[in-house]
Amino acid sequence: MGAHEKLPYGxxxxxxxxxxxxxxxxxxxxxxxxxxxxxxxxxxxxxxxxRFVDRMRQTAARPPLLQRLRGESS
Length: 74
Known about the structure:
The chain is an all-alpha fold.
């Protein structure tokens, strides 16, 4: 469960628990409490990771099969 789920969706702890049944409700509340105490650094880390993924997507070569399926030449 990540902080990115709480903010955009506005899910209550019970909904987060329903979406992540492998966590106890206590673990959900603990994660939310941790996020509340570390929101700025957690959000900065998430943004850093998303930028990294974007860079990897931009620089990664398309797999040959995908190129063929889209009719692209190598």
